């Protein structure tokens, strides 16, 4: 399988900035003039447009190129229990609510778990704060590969996502899932969209570190090969009987769950890395 960084189709990173979209390739950043974020994501040939823009402009982009959350009018949805680790951790956390046999069943069922995660307004970008709910005493980051999908249901790129989750609220009753998952600053995306014509290789890793007072509070890693479902399969279910006129972002589930005694605290620094996309860094409040 070709890698997203193969020289035959060089990696293109699309960055959303306060002064418009910017494409980064080979260490150069070039402004993509005259197109909105939504129009770009839904363009017939996003890779072609970006490659042409990058080739035609000799100079680096001037002005503010600080990355914002790579999202326009898209909704964010999420898949759940796509890794064995997530299935097992959730069955344990739901012990008092009846054992969580539904997590086991959804892990192996044909139909995946898909839920609404956030509107763009609830999403934060690189360097912004993510939030722990005040009424939660057990919250974790969920580091996930995020698919950027156009209105026609085609995956056009990949970004890094954090599906912040209140484990105590979800564990008390599965019907509380929307409250455990959907709240202000409950989702982080960034730092860019890796635009690729090739799927990401199965050996691509997802790495999480949480630093507290300068020391590691938690570190973990997984790889896409541990995911039980394929991105295409998740997208096919998401777009079944559902339309997304501006496209959509889909988080693909977590394979990293810290031990039960771990909860996020205010001031923690969360870093999620997916080479070759980059690192998404956020502080907790
Ligand atoms: O089943 C609840 C949510 C699962 C989830 O967010 C995940 O597995 O990442
Ligand atoms: Mg998740």
Write out key terms for the chains shown.
5-stranded mixed sheet; binds magnesium ion; single chain; 33% strand; 285 residues; disordered N terminus; globular
Please provide a written account of the structure:
The strands form three sheets. Strands 1, 2, 3, 4, 5, 6, 9, 10, 12 and 15 form a ten-stranded mixed β-sheet that branches. The protein has a five-stranded mixed β-sheet with strand order 7-17-16-13-14, with no helix packed on it. The protein is of the alpha+beta class. β9 and β10 (about 155-165) form a beta hairpin. It is built from seven helices and 17 strands. The longest helix has 11 residues, at about 45-55. α3 packs antiparallel against α4 (about 100-110).
């Amino acid at each position: 399988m070709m890698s997203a960084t193969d020289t035959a189709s060089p990696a293109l990173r699309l960055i959303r900035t306060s002064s418009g979209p910017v494409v980064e390739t080979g260490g150069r950043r070039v402004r993509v003039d005259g197109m909105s974020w939504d129009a770009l994501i839904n363009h017939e040939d996003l890779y072609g447009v970006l490659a042409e823009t990058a080739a035609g402009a000799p100079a680096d982009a001037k002005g503010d190129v600080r990355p914002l959350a790579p999202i326009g009018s898209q909704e964010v949805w999420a898949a759940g229990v796509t890794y064995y680790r997530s299935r097992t951790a959730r069955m344990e956390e739901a012990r008092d609510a009846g054992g969580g046999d539904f997590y086991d069943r959804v892990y192996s069922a044909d139909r995946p778990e898909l839920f609404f995660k956030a509107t763009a307004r609830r999403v934060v970008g690189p360097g912004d704060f993510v939030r722990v709910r005040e009424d939660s005493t057990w919250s974790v980051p969920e580091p996930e590969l995020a698919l950027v999908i156009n209105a026609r249901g085609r995956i056009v790129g990949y970004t890094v996502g954090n599906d912040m989750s209140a484990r105590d609220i979800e564990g008390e009753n599965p019907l509380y899932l929307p409250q455990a998952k959907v709240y202000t600053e409950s989702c982080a995306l960034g730092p860019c969209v890796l635009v690729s014509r090739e799927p990401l290789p199965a050996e691509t890793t997802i790495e999480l570190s949480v630093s507290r007072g300068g020391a590691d509070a938690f570190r973990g890693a997984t790889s896409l090969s541990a995911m039980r479902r394929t991105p295409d399969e998740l997208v096919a279910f998401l777009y079944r009987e559902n339309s997304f006129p501006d496209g959509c972002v889909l988080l693909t589930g977590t394979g990293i769950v810290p031990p039960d005694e771990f909860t996020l605290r205010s001031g923690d620094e969360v870093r999620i890395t997916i080479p070759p996309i980059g690192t998404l860094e956020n502080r907790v409040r």
